[in-house]
Amino acid sequence: MRPVYAVAGGVSKFTKARPDKTFQAVVKEAYDDALADIGLEHPAFVEQVDGSVASYFSDHFTRQLMAGIMVQDYLGLCPKPSHRVEGGGATGGLCFQEAWKSVASGHMDICLAYGFESMSHVETWKGNEFIALASDVSFDYPVGGFYSGYYAMMVTRHMREFGTTVEQLAHVSVKNYRNAYHNPYAQKRQRISLQDVRDAPMVAWPLTRLDICVMSDGAAVAILASEAGLRKLEQAGARIPRPLVKVAGIGRGTDAMRMSDRPHEDYDSFMRHYATPGEKASDETRAYYRRLWDHGCRYPGVHSFRAGRTAGNMAYKQAGISDPLAELDFVELHDAYTSSEVQTYEDMGLCRYGEGGPFAASGKAFMPGIAYGLDLPEAPLCPVNPSGGLIACGHPVGATGLMQNVFGIWQLQGAIAAHFGDPTLQVQNARRGATHSHAGTGTYVTVTILERE
Amino acid sequence: MTTKSIKPEESLGGTIVHGLPFPAELTPEALAWLRAMQPLRIEQDYHITYLHSYGQDSPWFAGLTNKVLLGNRERTGGYTYATPRGHGMYDGEPTEWVELPQEGRVHAFTVCHFGSEAFLPECPFILALIEFDGADTLFLTRLLGLNPEQASLAWIGMRVKAAFVRNAKLRPTDVYFVPA
């Protein structure tokens, strides 16, 4: 595999509904945004780009099969090669990694990854139904198919297993909404308190409306290139921002569609197959986990995502990361729910399993320089979802994973102020970050490491 | 044959609107104005009936109509699934059918106050994952007989028993659980 650079990205504003444009035209906005960032016009870019990967989750929302080719056509990229990827909420992350593969393998020098979702064509409850069809339609969906319900079951188990509290979950909501206040691309920009989160209408106990992301219309694109691709773009007149951003590692994992089928593995199996190298090397951590198992904890059960842990371990190994909390300057992760952000802290090794709740309220995952109105005991260490995440930015499924990577690219380019018109969310001297894209109840998960050269 | 006669049959039925404001003359200014026009939105219906097969899982649904709760077991090692599965996750071989106990414990739960369109009339309702002695995996079900307004983590671990609807619909909701 050869080095792959994430050259530029573009994002449409995520919003509740975009009736003013068809989905193709919304993608065009993000595409034009990315091209403007490198100073190329479409005719010059299309001369150089080798192909693309399309990302969108549901054929139901648009009631349109083969929507990907309609975007390819609208962008003026035919007859160049393209294909669609689909993997639920992780579709965008998978798309970014498929584009990486196209370039890393030598099949393409320049690959465009584009993603979108138009979720506003149906009412929210019908959208919930479409999304719930991403659960087993024989055994899960007919019982009361509702993703917020599935995640709420996971969090009740997490609370019971580890003592996690709803106030700890609410810290995630306060953080992400407050971060998004400085992100003009975000769908929801509001300053809320822990009490606001708990006072919001209950959706699926104990998750309230402010614990849960919303449905959105939106699009995002990223341009990936090899070293030869960089030269081609620059010879065509592109201004590639320096320092370059390299894709330093990718990882993926999977798990059973039905939560009920998830294994409950013993301590030895967990340590052998899932523990991070750092966890394995620490006597204290091994003893900590032994105590958890002695108290009945099993892995992953329904409280943890082994797909996320598998993806993280794989990506960290490729990128040479042994202590993610210390070696990552930021993480953009898939916080469809406050609870899933807490679960993902653990999967990605930012803290140990069982410590996600205290980690959420510690302050380590917050941005420096923002007044959250919280009494946080520790200083920021590795901001998680500095953009505001899915909870505040919105979650147009096929675009989401790409949006996370675009925000990651901008962080590493030091270009947040230029794109947001506000420097508040720029992680100072960001050198390396991770993006995490997640599907279903943890069925497909991707982790991508981006690094400034 | 004249082209004048080639046109679709017209009717009033299905008409959305009669007469939409539009430039009377397509001058360059009028054509430019079209870019500022508000989007038109129409409703489109889509209904379909699927003939869904439960395939190799069919005996499980037949069991419910006879008030029997079935599971599957791997022939090698005995790993037991509380939700049907035709082939083993570990041995890759066809599983065998076994009868599950009709009592178990609540492993995790939630109360849905909102949901998908199909289930909105039933809100609030309780979803629960049930664990059984002798089974390695869980079973998703509805939990009845508890007050949804008094959700409590104390419900986790509660002993519950299976109950069956009188007139089976051949759906997984033909079985539900209540406190034992």
Structure description:
The complex is a heterodimer of chains A (453) and B (180). By secondary structure, chain A is an alpha/beta fold. Chain A has helices at residues 23-38, 42-48, 59-62, 67-74, 91-104, 124-132, 141-144, 147-162, 166-180, 194-199, 227-235, 267-273, 277-281, 283-294, 306-319, 324-327, 338-347, 356-362, 389-393, 397-413, 416-420; strands at 5-11, 51-55, 82-85, 110-118, 202-204, 207-208, 217-225, 245-254, 264-265, 299-300, 330-332, 432-438, 444-452. A 5-stranded mixed β-sheet of chain A has the order 1-7-4-2-3, sandwiched between helices. In chain A, strands 8-13-12-11 form a 4-stranded mixed β-sheet. In chain A, a hairpin with a 5-residue loop joins strand 12 and strand 13. The radius of gyration of chain A is 21 Å and the shape is globular. The two termini of chain A are 18 Å apart. Chain B is mostly beta strands. Chain B has a domain at 55-179. In chain B, 8% of the residues lie in helices and 24% in strands. Chain B has 2 helices and 8 strands, in the order ααββββββββ. Chain B has a 5-stranded antiparallel β-sheet, with no helix packed on it. In chain B, strand 1 (70-73) and strand 2 form a beta hairpin. The longest helix of chain B has 8 residues, at 58-65. In chain B, 27% of the residues are buried. Classes of the chains: A alpha/beta (453), B mainly beta (180). Chains A and B meet through helix 6, helix 7, helix 8 and strand 5 of A and strand 4, strand 5 and strand 6 of B.
- Provide the residue-averaged pLDDT of chain A: 97
Low-confidence stretches of chain A: none
- The secondary-structure class of chain A comes to alpha/beta
Greatest chain-chain contact: A-B, 45 and 47 residues
Name the beta content range of chain A: 15-25%
Helix fraction of chain B by DSSP (H/I, runs of at least 4) = under 10%
Largest sheet of chain B: 5 strands, antiparallel
Principal-axes geometry of chain B comes out as elongated
Count of helix runs of chain A: 21
Main-sheet strand order of chain B equals 6-5-4-7-8
Q: How many distinct beta strands of chain A?
A: 13
Question: Any low-confidence stretches of chain B, pLDDT <50, length ≥5?
Answer: none
Provide the spatial order of strands within the biggest beta sheet of chain A. Answer: 1-7-4-2-3
Would you report the number of β strands of chain B?
Answer: 8
Mean pLDDT of chain B: 93
> What is the CA–CA distance across the termini of chain B?
81 Å
User: Which value, in Å, is the CA radius of gyration of chain A?
Assistant: 21 Å
- What assembly state would you assign to the polypeptide chains in this entry? heterodimer
> What spatial form of chain A do the alpha-carbon principal axes imply?
globular
